[in-house]
């Protein structure tokens, strides 16, 4: 069964409703022992990086998540949940993340290279460009997905970027390495393609269960 | 490329969708969940639900409406109307709404914007601004209580203030244009959109697809909202988007 990590920082309702619409069984928990038993984990999240890491630390979930992915079990971070997978964030002072993927979380500058201002947060539907084959993209084509964020991941390790979007800078939109995945946009709010991506993740979880 | 958003707005009273013409006349236009799914299929980018119930019962019904909409809809939606405290915000957001919109309460207690933004993040906090041109002021004035009460605030100053307080988006309604179907107030929209660093939703006055194009091309809006022209099928989200595409406005 899928586990949704409840650390007080996410709109768990919309993610869980999306899974219900697909008839995917799940449970919501903040308990590290219960979450360890999940076949796959979703780390949602909205709000600030620093608060999120503090909450994860407080609940003993930081070490649990690291242990969990070392077992090869699938993890999907959504929005802030994706940013948390990286090394550190400059939101409210430098904060260490889960350090599962290489990169730093930075704020959109709000001014482009020509000196013109642009809106922050990056809010709305943006084109998803598929830049690297990945099991999570199987059979899918690029379309628009829904973003809401003021910070983005900057990484020189392009091998972890599966899809991107352009908003002044290149914004890593789907990231992944091995069993670890992240989506900067909200798949649960991204209409048809969003639901397909969530289904794709659940299929990866099922496939892994099938072979183990 | 980030696209411009088309947002149908549904006024909800005691669990049913209605639309106020210039905030006074009301007409019944259907079931919220059914309409929400209809607009999703039509390609709406987001939805706004405005709770205009006056009673405590109506407010409770709204939480139920939010819950049913959230369980069916795979696009984001905002709920406004009657949100006066952090508790109200929690109630609506926990029922599954993506954003809450504050209007009168934000003017009365600007700290509420900051509290909400700290608790849920700025992206959840929309400040709705009802604006009406004031010749004495030589600019637009912010109104509260559904457009009945003039406030002390001039619109641009207030817009700049709400950004500082932590708002993530501004829903800007022109009271002069609302219900007239003669187009969005482009001067107002442009003035606010250029003054702030956060997205601005233009509202009030949409009568046809051309009006949306002007809101984006001339008004510099990030999104545009309309109600009755969609509800009464005078045009559709599909038609508006096809027109925008023709005019070179990026849409989904």
UniProtKB/TrEMBL annotation, chain A:
InterPro entries xrefs: Class_I_gatase-like, GATASE, Imidazole-glycPsynth_HisH
One Pfam family this sequence matches: GATase
Catalytic activity: 5-[(5-phospho-1-deoxy-D-ribulos-1-ylimino)methylamino]-1-(5-phospho-beta-D-ribosyl)imidazole-4-carboxamide + L-glutamine = D-erythro-1-(imidazol-4-yl)glycerol 3-phosphate + 5-amino-1-(5-phospho-beta-D-ribosyl)imidazole-4-carboxamide + L-glutamate + H(+); L-glutamine + H2O = L-glutamate + NH4(+)
Annotated metabolic or biological route of this protein: Amino-acid biosynthesis; L-histidine biosynthesis; L-histidine from 5-phospho-alpha-D-ribose 1-diphosphate: step 5/9
Entry annotation: catalytic residues: 79 (nucleophile), 186, 188
UniProt keyword annotation of Repeat present: no
Domain Glutamine amidotransferase: 4-201
E.C. no: 4.3.2.10, 3.5.1.2
Superkingdom as given in the UniProt entry: Bacteria
Location(s), subcellular: Cytoplasm
Entry keywords, A to Z: Amino-acid biosynthesis, Cytoplasm, Glutamine amidotransferase, Histidine biosynthesis, Hydrolase, Lyase
Main location: cytoplasm
Subunit structure: Heterodimer of HisH and HisF.
Function text: IGPS catalyzes the conversion of PRFAR and glutamine to IGP, AICAR and glutamate. The HisH subunit catalyzes the hydrolysis of glutamine to glutamate and ammonia as part of the synthesis of IGP and AICAR. The resulting ammonia molecule is channeled to the active site of HisF.
PANTHER family named among the record's database cross-references: IMIDAZOLE GLYCEROL PHOSPHATE SYNTHASE SUBUNIT HISH
Protein name, per record: Imidazole glycerol phosphate synthase subunit HisH
Organism: Cytobacillus citreus
Lineage, uppermost ranks: Bacteria, Bacillati, Bacillota, Bacilli, Bacillales
From TrEMBL, chain B:
Places the protein is found: Cytoplasm
UniProt main location, coarse: cytoplasm
Keyword annotations: Amino-acid biosynthesis, Cytoplasm, Histidine biosynthesis, Lyase
One Pfam family linked to the record: His_biosynth
Active-site feature positions: 11, 130
Keyword ATP-binding: no
Family assignment from sequence similarity: Belongs to the HisA/HisF family.
Name of the protein described by the UniProt record: Imidazole glycerol phosphate synthase subunit HisF
Organism: Cytobacillus citreus
């Amino acid at each position: 069964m899928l586990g949704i990590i409840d650390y007080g920082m996410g709109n768990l309702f919309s993610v869980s409703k999306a899974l219900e619409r697909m008839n995917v069984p799940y449970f919501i928990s903040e308990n590290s022992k219960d979450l360890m038993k999940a076949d796959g984990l979703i780390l949602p999240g909205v709000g600030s990086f620093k608060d999120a890491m503090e909450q994860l630390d407080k609940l003993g979930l930081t070490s649990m998540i690291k242990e969990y992915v070392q077992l090869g079990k699938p993890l999907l971070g959504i929005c802030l949940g994706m940013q948390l997978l990286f090394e550190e964030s400059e939101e409210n002072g430098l904060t260490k993340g889960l350090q599962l993927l290489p990169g730093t979380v930075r704020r959109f500058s709000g001014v482009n290279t020509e000196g013109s201002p642009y809106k922050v947060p990056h809010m709305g539907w943006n084109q998803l460009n598929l830049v690297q084959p990945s099991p999570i993209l199987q059979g899918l084509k690029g379309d628009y997905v829904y973003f809401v964020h003021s910070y983005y991941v900057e990484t020189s390790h392009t091998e972890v970027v599966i899809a991107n979007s352009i908003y002044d800078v290149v914004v890593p939109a789907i990231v992944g390495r091995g069993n670890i995945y992240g989506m900067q946009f909200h798949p649960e709010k991204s209409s048809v393609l969003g639901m397909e991506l969530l289904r794709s993740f659940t299929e990866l979880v099922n496939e892994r269960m099938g072979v183990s | 490329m980030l696209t411009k958003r088309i947002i149908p707005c549904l006024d909800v009273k005691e669990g049913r969708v209605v639309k106020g013409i210039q905030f006074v006349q009301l007409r019944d236009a259907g079931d919220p969940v059914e309409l929400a799914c209809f607009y999703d299929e039509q390609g709406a980018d987001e939805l706004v639900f405005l709770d205009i119930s006056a009673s405590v019962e109506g407010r409770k019904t709204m939480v139920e409406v939010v819950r049913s909409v959230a369980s069916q809809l795979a696009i984001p939606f905002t709920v406004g109307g009657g949100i006066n405290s952090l508790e109200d915000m929690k109630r609506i957001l926990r029922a599954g709404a993506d954003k809450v919109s504050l209007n009168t309460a934000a003017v009365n207690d600007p700290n509420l914007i900051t509290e909400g933004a700290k608790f849920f993040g700025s992206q959840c906090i929309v400040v709705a601004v009802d604006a009406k041109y004031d010749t004495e002021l030589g600019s637009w004035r912010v109104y509260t209580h559904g457009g009945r009460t003039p406030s002390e605030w001039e619109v641009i100053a207030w817009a700049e203030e709400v950004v500082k307080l932590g708002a993530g988006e501004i829903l800007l309604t022109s009271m002069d244009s609302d219900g007239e179907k003669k187009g969005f107030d482009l001067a107002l929209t442009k003035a606010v959109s250029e003054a702030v660093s956060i997205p601005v939703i233009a509202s009030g006055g949409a009568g046809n697809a051309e009006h949306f194009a002007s809101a984006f091309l001339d008004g510099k809006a990030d999104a545009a909202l309309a109600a009755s022209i969609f509800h009464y099928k005078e045009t559709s989200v599909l038609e508006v988007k096809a027109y925008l595409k023709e005019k070179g406005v990026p849409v989904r």
